[in-house]
Write a structure and sequence with these properties.
By secondary structure, this protein is of the alpha+beta class. It contains 23 helices and 22 strands. The strands form five sheets. Strands 10, 11, 12, 13, 14, 15, 16, 21 and 22 form a nine-stranded mixed β-sheet that branches. Helix 10 crosses helix 11 and helix 20 packs parallel to helix 22.
Length: about 750
């Protein structure tokens, strides 16, 4: 079967394939279970641990979770025994330490609960099969670390690494083969010398840094009597990750070598209709997609992942799933679990999830909007402005600390979202630009401006802010049946990479494919450092007084409002005027990934990260090497994939079409005599484009050779990939896309955008 025939058969299969049907959980009387009745049933959470452990052992475990003591062997053994029984009763045969190496995904190695016990008698050794799981097996495992990125911190022959149970994230089971299941133990991944080899270790360090810095500030401005315990002992960052993704048919995906290898289409033209009608966004969810969404949500509910929202996104075949806010490190685990479950369920439904930030040229890319805030151990959201933010000095101190964090380390935040894939998305089709700025909204901007200028707030009244009255008269048409609705303090700005959205900040620039761990780690670190700066300024202002007065707080707030003015921007982030304005303000406009990676080792950023204990200098050097190496490899894989696709499928299809035209011309000339037939005109139009593509392929070969000529220098390779590979691929794509418009459909070997983007 030719590729073209396979393409046609795939399209037929899409039309005739039945939708997969699953059973929703039901009660004994046949009625459906409420979601809350089975939510988290596959999670070994604190409630399960409390049931399984004696009270002293459970109290000991809680102290360990809160960082007050080490986990003793007896408690670890008790938890291991309890979780083994719980998991095996649910079909588990294996366990795995689930961790997040710096590969952009998760990793796992499965071990069976099965063990052998030897008993020696007079008759000899008797071997008995038993099921066992010890506290030491729960606490740590030893995977081969030599094949994971380490950035030169260790040599390949030094293979040892450790996965260590992260007790703050609950264990869970997932479906295995043939009706079995697997126990997952969320873990960190460290080297033999204790260096972080993963994404989670640094994230946990950053959350501790935020807690320490925030508690110091809060206890300073909200003191208790001498000798009493401080009011605030723990502050945690919260995170909600809106996950965007594309869903396409798996049979068509299998016919696109570029999608299979790189996650994006390296060639292809937009169909006549794509997203320009704005009719896909929030539209009716296609039945195949709804079936996949519902099945994935069912699995996620069982895993304790609080998914809340689902809808069509802007581009055809683009969708979004969003959860309820959780503590940041748990939210990261749940986001990675969500991506994994979506992929598995889509496969069962003969669909393919694309998490690449820009799988299709010319339509919206996908992001992972990270909604970030801070909460106290009393459950208070520190970024809640309340009704009168102008007099809420605690909120204003936290707010200016965040502004200061982005002002000082915006370039580092740009580093955290830099990748070969996200580079295609930033600044295009509703994606935020690469210049980091903060959108606060009209009301909060006015609040800050009025404080800085020591004047009353202009043009705002509380009732006006709180409600929108739809029941009044609009253009003399009464709509009295419609109720009044609440109005947020701020509007939304889709062109802002970091926007305040009511009681949180939305870091919109994070890419859909990447783990949110590193961007959130950097954000946490920057905020922790900024909170220290605000606290220090407050101590200087209050002098010898035991606690700051409102006047002291206001003076410090004014100081940071003035110093962070440049980072605040309310306008269109896509405009050329903003690029010029940002340059005047001194905001970095980092255009390429290699340039962004350099920020990681810049002294002002590196010293902040190491001073807080979030990274060691060797870990920073390692990550810098890994990011450059990964970028160069990603582009090299794309270039080689593109070269193969063009040379082995696209050009031969064009040659076959040219041959068909030439044969037709020859036959027509025999019948009608030589003349300028339409076929000859088509052939003349095709030939120069074919030659252009051949030249572009030669240019690709040259660019690839330049990259191969560099040895053992990841930084030089990344720069060469940016300087040579990207332009060569752009030239090749331009020629290939032109050729697609000229090649008859019956000869075109791979699915076109018109087939990929519509069910």
């Amino acid at each position: 079967m030719s590729l073209n025939s396979a393409r046609v058969e795939s399209l037929k299969d899409i039309i005739t394939r039945p939708t997969r049907v699953i059973s929703y959980p039901k009660k004994a009387d046949g009625k459906p279970l409420y979601t809350s009745e089975f939510f988290g049933e596959n999670v070994f959470d604190l409630q399960q641990i409390a049931k399984a452990l004696p009270k002293p052992a459970y109290a000991s475990f809680l102290k360990q979770m809160r960082g007050r003591q080490a986990l003793d062997r007896a408690t670890a053994d008790a938890i291991a025994h309890a979780v083994r029984i719980w998991a095996m009763d649910r079909g588990a045969t294996h366990f795995t330490h689930w961790f997040q190496p710096q590969t952009g995904t998760t990793a796992e190695k499965h071990d069976a609960f099965l063990s052998l016990k030897s008993t020696f008698t007079a008759a000899g050794e008797e071997v008995t099969a038993i099921d066992a799981f010890s506290g030491s097996q729960l606490m740590q495992a030893e995977p081969d670390a030599s094949s994971f990125p380490s950035g030169g911190m260790r040599t390949t022959f030094e293979a040892r690494g450790y996965t260590v149970w992260d007790t703050t994230s609950p264990m869970f089971i997932q479906e295995g083969p043939h009706g079995t299941s697997i126990l997952y133990i969320p873990s960190v991944f460290i080297s033999y010398n204790g260096d972080a080899l993963d994404e989670k270790t640094n994230l946990l360090r950053s959350t501790s840094a935020v807690s320490k810095s925030a508690c110091e500030l809060l206890n300073l401005i909200d003191p208790v009597p001498v000798g009493a315990q401080p009011k605030f002992s723990h502050v945690y960052t919260t995170l909600g990750t809106e996950q965007e993704y594309f869903l396409i048919d798996r049979s068509l995906y299998a016919l696109r070598p570029d999608l299979k290898t790189t996650g994006r289409t390296l060639i292809g033209n937009l169909p006549p209709k794509h997203q320009q009608m704005d009719d896909h966004y929030f539209g009716h969810v296609p039945s195949k997609v709804m079936a996949t969404m519902s099945e994935a949500e069912l699995e996620l509910f069982r895993l304790g992942v609080p998914v809340k929202t689902r809808h069509n996104e802007v581009a055809p075949k683009q969708f979004e799933l969003a959860p309820i806010f959780e503590e940041a490190s748990l939210a990261v685990d749940h986001n990675l679990l969500t991506m994994d479950v979506l992929s598995k369920v889509a496969h069962k439904n003969k669909l393919k999830v694309l998490f690449h930030e820009k799988p299709f040229k010319g339509v919206n890319g996908s992001g992972k909007h990270c909604n970030w805030s801070m909460s106290t151990d009393h459950g208070e959201n520190l970024l809640d402005p309340t009704v009168k933010p102008e007099t809420n000095y605690r909120f204003l101190l936290i707010l200016v600390a965040v502004l200061h964090a982005v002002q000082q380390h915006g370039a580092l935040l740009r580093t955290s979202i830099s990748s070969a894939s996200n580079e295609h998305r930033l600044g295009a089709c509703e994606a935020p630009p690469s210049i980091l700025s903060i959108f606060l909204g009209q009301h909060l901007n006015e609040v800050l401006n009025s404080i800085e200028e020591s004047r009353p707030i202009k043009n705002f009244s509380v009732p006006e802010i709180q409600t929108i009255k739809l029941g009044g008269t609009v253009l003399d048409v009464k709509v009295a049946t419609l109720p009044s609705i609440s109005r947020d303090l701020t509007d939304r700005n889709r062109t802002s990479p970091f926007a305040f959205t009511g009681n949180k900040f939305e870091f919109r620039a994070v890419g859909s494919k990447q783990s949110p761990a590193f961007p959130v780690t950097v954000l946490n670190a920057a905020v922790a450092s900024a909170l220290q700066d605000v606290t220090e300024a407050l101590r200087e202002q209050m002098g010898d007084k035991p606690f700051p007065s409102d006047a002291d707080k206001l003076t410090v707030i004014k100081k940071f409002i003035a110093s962070t003015k440049n980072i605040r921007f309310e306008g269109d982030g896509y405009s050329d005027a903003w690029i010029a304005e940002a340059e005047k303000r001194g905001l970095p406009n980092i255009k390429t990934c290699p340039e962004a990676f350099e920020q990681l080792l810049k002294p002002s950023h590196a010293s902040m990260l190491t001073k807080l204990g979030i990274f060691s200098q060797s870990e920073l050097n390692s990550r810098y090497f890994i990011m450059n190496e990964r970028y160069a490899k990603d582009l090299l894989v794309e270039a080689n994939t593109m070269r193969t696709l063009l040379a082995q499928q696209i050009l031969p299809a064009a040659f076959e079409y040219r041959g068909s035209l030439a044969k037709s011309i020859q036959i027509l000339n025999t019948i009608e005599g030589e003349q300028q037939s339409p076929e000859l005109e088509a052939l003349k139009g095709l030939t120069p484009v074919v030659k252009e593509l051949q030249a572009a392929i030669a240019g690709l070969d040259e660019a690839i050779a330049k990259l191969h000529a560099i040895h053992d220098d990841a930084v030089a390779e990344a720069k060469a990939a940016s300087d040579y590979i990207l332009p060569a691929m752009q030239a090749a794509r331009s020629a290939a896309d032109h050729l697609e418009t000229l090649t008859a459909d019956r000869y075109y070997p791979i699915p076109r955008y018109s087939e990929l983007l519509w069910f």
